[in-house]
Each structure stands twice: as C-alpha cells, then as structure tokens.
Amino acid sequence: MAELTYREAVARGIAQEMARDENVVFLGEDVAKAGGVFKATVGLLEQFGPKRVLDTPISEQAILGAAMGAAMTGLRPIAEIMFADFIAVCYDYIANEFPKTRYMTNGQITMPLVVRCGNGGGARFGAQHSQSVENWCMQFPGLKVVAPSSPVDVVGLLAAAVRDPNPVVFLEHKSLYATKGEVPEGEIVDQLGIAKILRPGRDATILALGMMVSRALQAAQTLQSEHGIDCEVIDVRSLVPLDTQCILGSVARTGRVFTVEENPRQLGWGAELVSIIADESFYDLDGPLVRITTPNIPLPAADALEDLAIPSVSRIVDTIRRALSA
Amino acid sequence: MNVLMPQLGETVAEGTITKWYKAVGDSVAAGELLFDIETDKTAMEVPSMAAGVLREIRAQSGQTVAVGAVVAVLAQSGAASAAETAPRAPEKTPAPAATAEVSPARPPPTGTAGQQSPSAASPPVSPGTGRAIDPYHGLRTPEKNFGKAMLPNGARITPLARRLAAQTGIDLATLHGSGPRGRIVAADVRQARPAGGAVNASAPLASPEASFDQIKSLYTGTPYRELPVDGLRKTIARRLSEAKQQIPHFYLSSDLDVEALLRLRKEINETGANRVSVNDMLVKAYALALREVPEANVVWAGDRLLQLAHADIGVAVAIPGGLITPIVRQADTQSLSNLASELAGLIARARERKLQPSEYTGGSASVSNLGMYGVRSFQAIVNPPQATILAVGAAERRPVEAPDGTLRATTMLSVSLSVDHRAVDGATAGKLLAALRTLVEHPLRILL
Amino acid sequence: MANKLAPHSATPSPNRSEATLIPLTKRLEMYRLLSLTRQAEQRAFDLFLQNQIKGTSHLSLGQEAVAAGAAAAMQPGDLSFCTYRGHAHTLARGVPVEKVLGELMGRDNGLMRGKGGSMHLTSVEHGVMGSYAIIGAHLPIACGAAWRAQYKGHKDVSVCFFGDGTTNIGAFHEALNFAACMKLPVVFVCENNLYMEYTPIADVIPVQYPAADRAAAYGLDRIVIDGNDVDVVYETLSQAYAKARAGHGPSLVECLTYRYSGHSRADPAKYRPAGELEKWKERDPVKAYRKRLGALGVADAKLDAIDAEILKIIDEATQACQAAPPTSTDILFTDVYADGGCAWRN
User: Fold this and answer.
1) d(C-alpha A254, C-alpha B187), whole Å
2) What CATH number belongs to B244-447?
3) C333 touches chain B (CB under 8 A)
4) CATH of the domain at A310
5) Is ipTM > 0.85 here?
6) A57, C141: Cβ pair inside 8 Å?
7) What is the pTM of this model?
C-alpha cells in the first residue's frame, strides 16, 4: 500500500479512468502543461497526450459547455473549474443545462460528465477563492455532488463519478491537497451515495465533509478524553445522492446531531440534512439539532481572521460540550 | 382514553390479542399489564399507559386487529367520567394531556441472551428502508406520534424521551428532567423504573439503576468507607455496562499447546537483543489470525460493518484505579521485536496515564491476559466497538495423550474468545480460534 | 467560397439571378421545408389563439429560409443545436409535425411527452440535439459535440443556430474563441432578425453586423448573407459544412432576416417602425422562392400541390394531437437521473 497525497490521488484517479476508457477526456485551465494550479494533474499530459488532456482558454462557460456537448454525444469528459468559486461564472451549466437536459428531453440525452473543483478555505485566498460551494450545486435535481476527504476516497469516488451516467460535481478540498493517506495498489472504484462512519460513538453524531472531517475526528477525540463524550463521526462524502440511512441510523443510536460545515450558515448543506433528520428521526432526538458552520460572512484573507471563521477543533469541541451539558 | 393496538415493528400491520389480564370494570394501575399480543414476528405484554378503570374491551382474546385500532377503552382516574369504583392510585395520577394519544407499547421483557435491555437504545422509529419515499415530499415522516412536548406542569420532554416513555410505559409526569432548563431527556426515562407491573416484582433493589441511597440502605450497620469514583472509573462503568448489556456476546474456549512457543521464545531471548514475552507472541499470533480470517477483523457500526485493513490489537493493561486498552497498530505486519518494544512503551505510558486518546481508540480486537494471577481461564467483555477479545489464562503443565497412546506432559494454555455476535458469527469465530491455535502451535509462522 | 462573400451580398436579393448549380430536386425539397415550417408555425399560432397551446412560443414566421436552407445542406448525422425559437429548425430536420405540435399542446404524443415544451424541442434520432432557452448556452455545447467528432474522427458537423441578441453574451465569445483555437467542426449560424427581444440590435452594438463584424476577433471570415434567400443560405452553409468536415475549422455565418411576429406570444411588436414589416413581407422567403422556382419552370400548380400536401399533414397532425391524451402524469418523476427516476437519497 502506497502513501499518496490528496493531490497525487487526483491524478491517480483521473489516470486510472483515462487508461481504462478512451472516451474519458480531461480539460481545464492550466491542467495540461502546467499540471494544474494545484499540481493535482501533473503527468496526465505526458501519459495521455494533448488530444485527451486539454489546456483551455480562461473560459469557464466554454469549458463546461464543451464538456456537456461532448458528454451528450458519447465522451465522458472531466472538466476542471480551477477554484470552485468560479462556478459562479459558468453557473448556467450547473443550474440550467447539466441537471435539466435529461428530464426536459424525456430521457433522450445522457450526460456522463464530471466537474472537478478546488473547493474550500484555509489557504488565505480571501473571499472569492475560498468558498465551500456544496450548496450552490446540491440544490439542482439531476446533479450529483461529491466531496472526498481522503486520498483513497479521491481515487475511488472520482472513478465512481467518471463511471456515473449523470453529471457529477466533484469538490476537492484545496487545503487537503497536501495531506497524505494510504491508497491501495490497483484499481479503486468506490460508490457514490455511501457515507462512512469513521468513528463509532454513542453520545452524539457529528456529520462532516471535506476538510471538516479531520477536525471532527480530532474534536471527537478531545471530547472523549477530556469530557467523556463519545461522538460518532460520519464523513458524509456524497451530498447527492445522500446516504440518509447511514445518517439516520446513527441518529437513532446517539439521539444528538451536530453538523460541521465550512460554508456560511445560511442554507448550507447541513440545513438540508438537519431538516430531514428533524422530520424522519424526530422521535430519536434527545435535544436540538446543532449546526456548526462558518458564520454568515464572506471569508476573510488574513490567517488570524480566516481561522476564526472556519469551524475549528476547539469550536467544535466547545459547541458540542455545551450542547450536551445540562 | 383509547387503548390501541401497538406498532410492533415497521412491517407489522396487525396483531392478535392472546390474553386479557383485566376484565371490564377492573381498575388498572399505570404500568400494570393489560393484555398480551402476538404477531408473526413477536409476542409481547402490553402494560397500561394510565391508571383507571377498564370500561370496554373491543377486541377479545383471539381477535386479530390492525395496528392503531382501538382494542379497549380506559376511564382514567381523575377524569370527569371516572368510574364508580374508586381506583387505588398507587402513584401520582398521570397527566392525561400528555399521554392521551399515545398507544402503549413496551419491548418484550429481557431474558433471552443477546436481547437488548429495555433501557438500551430502542430501535429507531423512522429509518424504515422498507417504506418507499413519497417523491412529493422526499421524506419518510414517522406515521406515529408520541405525545406532546410539554406536560401540564410545564415540563418539557425531548422527542426521544417521549418515545421511550411511551414505549416503556413510563409516566413522564413522575420524572424530573435533568436536561437543559429541566427538560426531560432520554436518560431520565432510561433511568426511571417502569411503574408497577412485573418489572417491579423481579427487580432486586440492587438493580443497576438503584440510587446511592437505596444501596446505602442495604448496608446500614455495616462499616464502610465511601470512595470517590473518578472519570476513568465512570467511563469504565458506563462502557462495560453498555457493552455487556447491548452486545450479544458468545464465548468460545480452547486449549493451546504452547510448548513449542515457549521454546522459541527462550531461543529468541537467549540470542536476540530484545526480549519478548509470551503475551507479545500471543498478540502477534492473534493479529495474524485476524489477517487470515478477515471476516472477523470487523467492527459493528450500527447499520453496517467496518472491515479493517489491518489488525490493530488492544492489550488490556491494569492501571491504578482501573484498566485501559492501548492499541498496537498494525500488529499483523510489525515484526515481533518491534511489537514487543512498542507494547512495552504503551504499557509503561498507560501506567503513567500518559496515553493519548488516539493510542487507545480503534482496533477490532483485544487481548486480556490474567495468566500471571494463576487464573486458568475466564471470559472477557468485548471492548466496544471492537468485535472480539481474547482472554488468556495461565500456562500449566498438563498430561496429554500422545498419538501412540502414552501420556506425556506438555504446557497448555487456556484461552477464551468473547465475540460480538452482531459482527461475527460462531463459525467465523471458530475459524479465528483455529487459526490462532495453528499459529501458536507452529510458532515459527509468527516470525514470518 | 462562401467565406469570401463580400459584404454587399448582404443586400437582400429576392430576384437573385439564376447562375447556381442547385439541382431542382434539392430546390423542391427546400420549398417543401419552407412550406412546412411556414404552415406549421401558422398552425401553432392558430392553436394558441384557440387556447390549445399554452405557455410561451417563439415563432419563426418570416425566418423560414434559414431553417430550410441550413437543414437542406446538412447530411444525416449532422447535429443541430437550436434556440427557444426552434420549431422550424426541428421540423426542418424531419421531426414529425405531430410530435412537435403534441409537445406544444402538452400531449402524450409530444416529442418529449410534454416534459420540455416549446422552448426545448429535442429529437436525438433526427440529430436535433436540443433547443436551448438560455441565450448563448448552446454555443459552447455545440463546440463540445464538435470536439467529440474531432476526437473520434467522426465526420459530422455541429450546427448552432442563434439570434442577433446572442452576440453580446459571454458564451458567444468564449465559444467562438474555443472553436477557432481548436479548429472544431462547428458552424455558427446567426439569424439576425434585427431585434433581440423587443430592442433593436442596432441600439446596443457599435458595429453594423452583430455576428459577422466580430468574426475577425477570432480569425474567422466576415460572412453576411441574405437569410431570406434559401438558395443563398443553402450554398453558403454547404460550403461552411464542407470546410468543417474537411478539418478546416469553424465558420460564423450571419443571416439577415426578419421576424413577422413579436418576440414571443406576449409581444405584439408595437415597437417596430411603421412600414417595416410590410417592407420585409415584400421579400417574404416563401413567396420569393415560389417566384424563383416559377422562373425555373416549375408550375404554380406543382407548388400548390406541395402546399396542399403539407397542409393535409398538418391537419392530420393537429387532429391526432387533439385526440391524444394529455401527458401521462406518471412521468412527472421519471428521468431526473440516468437510472430513470428522481431518487437523490436512500
């Protein structure tokens, strides 16, 4: 088993799928010769050549539109939108085109494409290069939204996304690119729509995504060792499709729920999860549902400010401890 | 109030009344048994939610009725239409407003090995995968409610507490909330003894939920000293109570011939720089056995299993005031000498209470060794969320019959495997124990 | 070469002289398409007045020559990317009238069984890869389809129709740049009908021809043609398609034409100067083509017979749609995802 960085896992996942299926093509800004601004696609151009690995102009609409046209006529493109914030520039495809075309055409058109983005904060990039945009994408019926937290999940979920016959937004966390994890040799294919219980626990369920997963795990350790609170930590991994059964099953065991979200509070992904839990698991709840989020502000650039804004281990610990104490 | 046919499970639509404990006109205490029901899945006793007089029985013994149907009508004590027969009010009159819409249901009494105790987390009401999602709502909203959020006296009750109270027949009005702003939470219901009924008769005073005062009253006249219970002790008490109550344990025992293993250890210790103990070798052997039987290298995670890629083995270490189980990571791939020195370090730091949480959480299995106390064999409690624990007794010389029929003495070691049946079945555990035996009795394999 | 056309060819020339080599059968086919799109759009308008078509509709009355000429020049397998004003382009690729009217009427026999409506007519089997209602969205999409052809070595051409209003949206420029850089087999066909929605295009651009005058920015030829002359459309696009098929990259063709009705149903088009509509009706593409065919010796009776045959088809289609059940409600939740359903959670 080799240890890979999250960024190496991206290239490994793309390469695995491109080697398997020559209909898989890859395009984006600076992705080929430069190997990506996050260096997550180094080596792909050398391995697969310029016909399959394309440097595009800075034209997000052209990137996603071309991916769509290619997908609906037989290719399986992977398109990179460098910073997830830039989805706003080509939102028409995310909002109007990808998710609705199959429905509007009564199933005539299939759209197997993946949009990869560097999502999330922690890199001191300021308000327009640090956002967590899960909720920009998960609100559209017809789209799938995935956000891996570890290198092995990057490979497995990326492969699953490429093989999925639906449009998938694949949100890599840019502050995780340097993190390492073990990735087994050989082909890895995961499944979309499966959450992972990373730490079983009895007293509360913590739902986390992306960079918040490791913080939730650290918080759970502190809560256990310092406060005797035993938290179950779930990496949601896939917002659409959503592994509701895993989440509700956990709620039934613990009776308390905390989401840890990097997005600003209003209408973050946790709001939808909490709404489902409040309805379906109402009689499993032994206390309020609590969302731990970035406050409702744009993300600041300075490290001292950004660190205050994004949920930290200590904020997670404090919030859970206070919510669980009588 | 109407007495309803309770919902006995997601897929159960009807139940058959097999026995009425009360006749029309009888007075009924809250919690007293009213009737028995049977479904294709289960049989259970149904206690009364409230005190009162049974005014009407609508479904006679032998009758099958739909879930939610009214099977009887109870005139509640204190209500305007209360019956002539003055009911003995054994307890405070329950609050009708809070319970009027609730159908009585209580899990079957415990007793069968492996069944959950009534105080354990009840099965959830909602996540019924069997029910299709209504696409208009995208939700599986529970079809059943469990009473109001506030009692007439103003006390508030969490939804889970309401459900548990309804399902166990506990009168919420008798409880004092320990939650934020006096809210009645699930723990309050779980700790409350169900009112009246069979539970009372069989419950010894020293039940786990008995209060300090109740216990103390048993020892009046006996000199004793009160010792404080620290956080470690509390955690041990809570976790092991839960483990023993909630994990359906089963146990397998075996005797291992450790003659060759002891010889090998002697050789290693005479030649190598690092000393290894029998325990080190058993930990290593157990890790290898788990690798050979990966289906046993799992952790129960509620609605699924986590199958671990490595065998991380916990080793129970007695420390002042309790015990702790540091984890030897990747015990299956480490060399024996590495494992021995890592374990020695973990044990030393455990005794100084210097372990980080990451050093004692996780793993799929533990080893507990009481051989040094001359214990021949014992059964350990599974250390959740792990699935197995190997209890190791003392090695002793025993005569065994050789293939030629003669007796010879060899050194035998008794081990017992405790297993979480939710995660690992008997045959798998048997395979695991057999693999362990092979490794221990051919110990060179441990070094490979 | 069409791309060598001088700007003066933009002058409408209904009485264009007869020096071309278009075979008569092709011309009759194009007349048929003109007649079909004209009469079908008129029927759509009538059905709207009778409240049998609901929602919005954007008619191509007056612009038929672009749809007819463009489709007549295509080969089977070529792909059309249309706009919300896409009835004519859809019909011109051979999609049955009944399917189109059924879709407009919300009937179960509709092209998408009522799930898309007037603005999203799509028939993959006829190469109609969708009608797009967000201005400009389909230009990059057509590039993607062309990229697929280039990558796979297929010989089909992607043809993307759009209005003059589209030329000021970002996607137009992104798509032209992308296509030109990659030499994609895509042909962009601008139908300049002088009005975006309600506002004249001339009011909002600093150049005369909204598409053609921008072509140079992407290294493309400036091509403006009479979009009311089906022969000119046919010839010009034939050459553009051939260029794309040969691997020589995209073309941008601006077709001057005029929309007889307002932007959509809701628009009575009161903003047009007096006499403008009448002036354009003198250059009506159907009438003009009848005249040309007459000059080529085709009897009026033959063309009348074609009109009558088309009318019969449209009448039958109308009756079939009126008799068809409303869209089946059981498809409300189908085909959101590729598994055929709408489940987003377990």
Assistant:
1) 11
2) 3.30.559.10
3) yes
4) 3.40.50.920
5) yes
6) no
7) 0.68
